[in-house]
Write a structure and sequence with these properties.
Blueprint: H1 3-24, H2 27-43, H3 47-70, H4 81-88
Length: 96
């Protein structure tokens, strides 16, 4: 895969997914997405990607601190429409 195709995928697939993961409070997934896609996004020269990943890093720092105090998984919102849709389509299983 070319660098251009990889950046296109980050921009059109993984950056929106990252934003959804922040909305639902999926701290571990945000951490993983930043680890894999953050470095190429930050080196890309695409300002929109840089902003998204900088915001995600700041969010992750705050969310990690919150979960340190309130427990792992305390940021996760099972009632978020994206989570509900994924549960209905059996993409994920959320333990209560």
């Amino acid at each position: 895969m070319s660098d251009e195709q990889r950046l296109h995928n980050i921009e059109t697939i993984f950056a929106p997914h990252l934003q959804t993961c922040m909305e639902v409070g999926n701290v571990n997934r945000v951490r993983a997405l930043i680890a894999v896609y953050g470095p190429p996004a930050m080196k890309s020269g695409r300002e929109t990607l840089k902003v998204i990943f900088r915001d995600a890093e700041a969010w992750l720092e705050n969310a990690s601190q919150y979960e340190t105090v309130n427990g792992i998984g305390s940021m996760f919102n099972k009632e978020h429409p994206a989570v509900q849709k994924a549960m209905q389509t059996r993409l994920i299983k959320v333990h209560t």
